[in-house]
Structure formats: structure tokens, C-alpha cells
Amino acid sequence: MSLHEKIQQELKAAMMAKDADRLSTLRLLKSAMGYAQIEKKTESLPDPEIIALVQKEVKKRRDSVEQYRNGGRPELAEKEEKEIGVLEAFLPKPLAPEELEQLVKDTIQETGATTKKDMGQVIKAVQAKAAGRAEGKAISTIVGKLLP
């Protein structure tokens, strides 16, 4: 079953359960998918593109949570966190910190990176290998720590 079909099923289940919060989050995701399809002029998106889209939506919400907390709006931050929980169900299992660090070390050796100037090249290669299982911020931190 493709990720698109899974999202459709979850949307139907949320409608039947009358779960308004989950339903609104899934509708927003479906809308974002629709816009991406129009932009790319395609009938359906492949799973890797949907995963990237979900990650983008999660990142937006994490930024919002931080802003709401700083602005003294904990109720809105809580709502965004619930949406993050709904969206994360569609993401692949993230890499453990040890696995990610090993992946970065292997990639540094493969690319022959020696200084921080090579950071962009290493990060790009790690993101391709991680295939949505690690956040860019975490990858960047580890690469920065390992490269002199």
C-alpha cells in the first residue's frame, strides 16, 4: 500500500470516528499533497516525495510550537504538537543517534571530506542515504562535530 493510499484511509477513519483534530491535520496534508502534484504536473506523488512533504509540514509545526511558547500561547503550541503527532505516523522510523553518526562517518570516508568546507557535500550525501529517516539539523550537527 502506498503512502498516498494510507493517508486516504486515515482520512476516512478520522471522518468516521468524528475526530476533528486528526481530520483537519490530514486534510491539510492532503491539500499540501495536491498542491505538490499540481506544481510537479503529475497524477500522484511517489512515496519519497510524500515523506519529504510530511517532513516539511512537521518542521513548520515545530517552528510554530517554538514561536507560540515564546509568545505565551501554550494552548496553540499544544494544538501544533498534536498535529505533529498525527503527521509523524506517516514518517519512516528515524535512525538512532548511533546509527546516524556511523552513517555520517562512512559518508565522510566515501566522499573524502577533510574540512568544514566539505560539509555541504557530506550533508547532501547523508540526506540521500538516510532517505527521510533523519532531520537535516541533526545531520548538520554531527557532520560539524566530526569534521575538523
Task: Provide an overview of this structure.
The structure is a single chain. The chain has 148 residues and is mainly α. The longest helix has 24 residues, at 47-70. It contains 7 helices and no strands. It has helices at residues 3-17, 20-40, 47-70, 74-88, 97-111, 119-130, 136-146. The chain has 2 domains: 3-88, Uncharacterised protein YqeY/AIM41, N-terminal domain (Hypothetical Protein Yqey, Chain: A, domain1, Orthogonal Bundle), CATH 1.10.1510.10; 97-146, Arc Repressor Mutant, subunit A. Helix content is 76%, strand content 0%. The mean pLDDT is 87.
Q: How is the main sheet built?
A: none
The name CATH uses for the topology of the largest domain is Hypothetical Protein Yqey, Chain: A, domain1
- Could you name the CATH homologous superfamily of the largest domain? Uncharacterised protein YqeY/AIM41, N-terminal domain
Order of helices and strands: HHHHHHH
Mean pLDDT: 87
> What is the tally of beta strands?
0
Question: Can you count the helices?
Answer: 7
Query: What top-tier CATH class of the largest domain fits best?
Result: Mainly Alpha
Please identify the structural class as seen in this structure: mainly alpha
Radius of gyration: 18 Å
Q: How many domain units?
A: 2
β-sheet strand percentage: under 5%
First-to-last CA distance: 44 Å
Architecture per CATH nomenclature, i.e. the level-2 architecture of the largest domain = Orthogonal Bundle
The helix content is: over 70%
Unreliable stretches (pLDDT < 50, length at least 5) are none
Shape: globular
What is the chains' assembly state? Answer: single chain
